[in-house]
Amino acid sequence: MTISDAPATAGPITDTVRAFAQGANYLPSPDPFIAKTPYHRPLDARRLDAVPWPAPLEEQNWISDPGLMANRLLMNFYESGALFLPADGLARRQAEFEDFYSAEALRNAELARPEAERFVFGFLDSAVRLTGRWDTDALEAHVTAAISETTSADRPVLRAIEESAEPKRAAELMIAQMALDGLTEATAMSQNLGGAFGAEQSELFKIFIDEFGYGVFDAKHSTLFAELCRSVGMNDEPHHYWFFYLPSWIAGNNYFYKVTRSRTDFFRYIGGMAFLEATFAPSFAAMTKTFRAVYGDAVDTRYFDEHAHIDEHHGRMAVYDLLLPLGRKHGAHAIKEMVRGIEEVRLLGRLGDEDLLAQITWRPEAVQAAPGGEGERLEPGRFETRVADRDTLVAVESGTAGLHWTPTGGPLELAAGQGVRVPRGRLYGVALGEGASATLSAAPPAAR
Length: 448
Description:
With 448 residues, this protein is α+β, with helices and mostly antiparallel strands. 51% of the residues lie in helices and 9% in strands.
């Protein structure tokens, strides 16, 4: 059946989502960056109200504003199951802490989560189709081919960073996406460490404890990522760049929370995790080269270097000590689920790379834009980013405004009578100056 024909889960979730988004931690922010708190994660309640929950996203509209809003929501659902404490102590954030982890917030998250997951990830059921007979030999052949194809493929995102007119802006856009996982690395993995599932449980724990630096905080992978951020002048607080996460990258992070929360998705998780661990080493080695080309010796590449080293070992462990033994032990269904996990992660990775590449290569330019006319009027005193669901014209009617499209590098400054044409699928935000006004409307056809 097609995605649009998929049966809806029971009942609309709009009221539950609205109640969740009205929590103090999800209220609007006047600023483009979230400072000194891991709890403030603005959710635009009006745009959440407009998400068509009964009609799951399809691949062709997956990079969209409803996709952005649903993924932001899901990330908050998932991360309310992990512990975040402010770096400078809880004393001034006690109310935020209690609100973020309140029983009511957790209850609403659990009620809404299944339908939100179906909305974001339902398309995978038809996008990834498996046929034929699957046994351990077929699993090994498939994962070997997938690893070979990925490790030998071109790396257009890294090339685009190196060739960008502003390579640091481009590199830091990528760092902001990586921060989704990098600053909380292996949190999703930790959800599969409990229970009793044989020798493979200990093999998974070996990978996990490597991620946590064998109990040494300075060697923890998230610590190394924070050092990378600081070395290039970026903030290392979780979700400081909340507004600049691309929907595809949030979804890639959300996927691993989804499949580790669901015990019946365990084998799917193992497939996706093993594939990534086996392909990370050359990817991170290439990142070191790119970031050295952009920043020289100033950048701390230990995060990349550690993965380029340890993931050669993790890749072998994940495939030969986890994936294949689990297939031999648990049979055809487990094998098919692991293959599905591999292919779902490959698809999500491709969509994420395409999204990031398009954002890196987009260079917004100011154009003359007549004031007035029909369109959505931006609200003063609040900052939001959104994804353009059609070619969109941002028009400044009075005062000045800044168009943000990356987390660093500064906005494009616009005066009254100026605007920007935003291509469909691109993430952007508008910061209005004092007394300024601006509108969003469908962009006129581009001149040929």
